[in-house]
Amino acid sequence: MQDASGGLAVLKNRDFGLYIAARFLSNIATQMLIVAVGWQVYHITGSLLDLGLIGLSQFLPFLCLVLVSGHVADQYDRRVILMLSLCAYFACSVVLLSFAMANIGSTLPIFAVLAVYGITRAFQLPAAQSFVPTIVETRLLRNALAINSSANQVASITGPSIGGVLYAVAESHVGRNSGASLVYGTSAILLITATLLLLLIAKRRAPTPRSSLSWEILLQGVRFVWNRKTVLGAISLDLFAVLFGGAAALLPAYTRDVLHAGPAVFGYLRAAPGVGAGATALYLAFRPISRHVGVTMFAGVAAFGVATIVLGLTRHFWVAMIALVVLGVGDMVSVFVRGLLVQLETPDQIRGRVSAVNAVFIGASNELGEFESGTTAAWFGLVPAIVLGGVLTLIVTFLWARVLFPRLWRMQSFEQLKDNKSDATS
User: Which of 176, 191, 287, 365 has the CB geometry, 3.0–4.6 Å to 242, for a possible disulfide?
Assistant: First the structure.
């Protein structure tokens, strides 16, 4: 398989350009929404555990539905699924806006909306992860995935920053809960715009002929991942590394209680991982990883763990910012290798179901990581929880590389995937 050297040339594909723009705007909107929810919930209760429950309330409904949603992504037009998902996100933004304007004093209604958000995400993620290979030629897939990741990470930079600044400005000039209202309203406008962009993408037939729903069909993606040990190792590494290193969920408390700062600084800290990840993704769009694939991926996860430890130990804003940028670089390297490996290994007729399994691992690492971090912080304290998470990430990296998945550690290039089909029976 050849490395594509066209860099941004893949953006000449009209549908891919529209998709990237829609994904960029919708990711900014959802990043803003989650930032506002985190700050608002912590403002209402002051509870570290509640910060963890933000992730859990999204993950539980996501987990229950994700296998069905993978089947749906393989049976129906993924473009339509994505549009309906954005409409549901829009509804969540509007409801949260109404809560903020009503100045509610309880977090339970907010968690209920986040559960709906999790249900929507269960259907949106498999469709989004399996959509790019259907609109981009295989020879340009590496560049397309890198640009897709870059757009996502740039959104993760601008989203929290915009959300944090809007929240802080409105709170200081208008009054309490005005910040949340402004962020939720802006999020709703961006989501509608993203939906209209998706509407312009050409219709495509369903990926596979319609088939009846059965456990045999639903579990096909699970069996595929289990039999591809390189895929299993890559996505499970991400699961446990981010599960233990989910310091981002604690940033509202870290900002207020360690750095003694407000929403604007929180927005900068929340955006810092995206700065590192976005720059790395842009670099990978022109220079995709092609050698020492396994070692590079494990090095990225190790950097993620070290950066988490530094974050926990510092009390200085700029050191924290640098640590979070490095954290984003390491995460992006791992995400790029894992994402390309999954896409290259997966036949299109089951791409939705495999993407659903991958989404479970991603969702578990993010949302359960937030819950684990919040719970650990409530038990042991904020700083010990962050440091412990980084240490456990390094331990997981060593075990996966040298004990559980040594073949993944020795993987030199993606071309080896052609020769490693024996993984399915090993």
Answer: 365
- Domain 7-425, what fold? Growth Hormone; Chain: A; (1.20.1250)
Burial 66-80 (b: 16+ CB within 10 A, else e): bbbbbbbbbbbebbe
Residue at token pair 């819950």? 371
pLDDT per residue over 126-159, tens digit each?
888 778 878 887 777 777 877 777 677 677 667 7
Q: What are the pLDDT digits (tens) for 341-369?
A: 777 777 666 776 777 777 777 655 566 66
Q: Distance between CA atoms of 164 and 174, rounded to whole angstroms?
A: 15
How far apart CA 406 and CA 316 sit, in angstroms, is 38
Q: Which residues contact 314 (CB under 8 A, 6 or more apart)?
A: 320, 323
Q: Helix, strand, coil % (nearest 5) of the chain?
A: 85, 0, 15
Instruction: Determine contact, residues 323/254, Cβ cutoff 8 Å.
Output: no
DSSP structure string for 267-281 = HHHHHHHHHHHHHHH
* Distance between CA atoms of residues 144 and 185, nearest Å: 31
Please tell me whether residue 244 adopts helix, strand or coil conformation: helix
Distance CA 392, CA 380 (A): 15
* pTM as predicted: 0.68
CA R_g for the chain: 20
Q: What is the DSSP string of 284-337?
A: HHHS---SSHHHHHHHHHHHHHHHHHHHHH---HHHHHHHHHHHHHHHHHHHHH
